[in-house]
Amino acid sequence: MSELLQSERAPDRMGVRPAGRASKPAGAYTRAWRRFKRNPSAMAGLVVLIAIVLFVLLAGVISTYITGFDYSENHLESVLSRPGENGYILGSDGNGRDILTRLAYGGRVSMLVAVLATVTTLLLGGTIGLIAGYAGGFVDSALMRLADVFLSIPALSILILIAALYRPDQYRLSLVIAFVLWPGVSRLLRGEALALRRRDYIEAARAVGAGDARIIGRHLLPNVLPTIIVWSSLVIPAFILTEAALSFLGLGVRSPTPSWGNMLSEAQPFYRSNWTNVFFPGLAIFLTALSVNLVGNGLRDALDPRLEK
Predict the structure, then answer these.
(1) 176-181 — which CB contacts under 8 Å span 24+ positions?
(2) What is the pLDDT of residues 224-244, one digit of tens each?
(3) C-alpha torsion sign, points 205, 211, 214, 216
(4) For an engineered disulfide with 106, which of 222, 244, 258, 278 has Cβ 3.0 to 4.6 Å away?
(5) Torsion sign across C-alpha atoms 263, 84, 98, 64
(6) pLDDT score, position 20
(7) CA dihedral sign, ordered 277, 278, 283, 284
(8) For residue 17, is it within any domain?
(9) Domain membership flag for residue 75
(10) Is position 10 within any domain?
(11) In this structure, what CATH number is given to the domain that contains residue 250?
């Protein structure tokens, strides 16, 4: 009897185990991560993005233990120092402030604005889009006509107008960006909801008495989560560039609080005499936008079920 049990547990001569011993299949997100890891450009973007996030999160450590300068300290005797001069690793700006320290703190502000704007836009536009797509009829028409009104007005013009009137800080600036740019994700998720609302599991949930809020939260939202992840990864660079553009125009985050945009604006008069003042903030914006875009493209490919082999 024991020999019989051992023979049932052991693999056959072809090396195949019995069906009862088959390993548990990997989940959808596990398979997506495996596909993501096989994408070299996406992995390179992820490494660069992690390095940038660590750099801005450790701004206080950089200021205290590496540069020894605060981001708002003015040293007029060391104005426009070259990289390596007078103790400035990346040089100083027109007010004698350390560029490396301001680059770290400015990245914290710029990325905070982008992330908060992304979350707020998703909460506002995503909720409207899911409700419109699920409800259909008059509700869908009314909400989408409201979105069309916002889309018909140039977003940058509205942003400039609101920022010029209220001069928002980084938190209010993220709310302004979300208020203006929510229709894009709203229409995206509306289309997803329209495609999902007639699926069998939605009809089954209705049949057992589930309410509309429960169906949207428990059935629609999990199924549009890959779309939300990809959209977020692709829109964060756009919001970083939006904040940089407004700050460059003097309508965003105001000095002495640094951001990559107002660092570029303040360096504009000195780009001939000290090009590093322009180069380093511009490089930070470029690398951040590029790395997030590469990660977003990798996530899009990894989460696409049509690429499943």
Answers:
(1) 177/113, 177/117, 177/120, 177/121, 177/239, 177/242, 177/243, 178/117, 178/120, 178/121, 178/124, 178/125, 179/124, 180/150, 180/155, 181/117, 181/121, 181/125, 181/155
(2) 888 898 899 889 988 988 888
(3) positive
(4) 258
(5) positive
(6) 44
(7) positive
(8) no
(9) yes
(10) no
(11) 1.10.3720.10
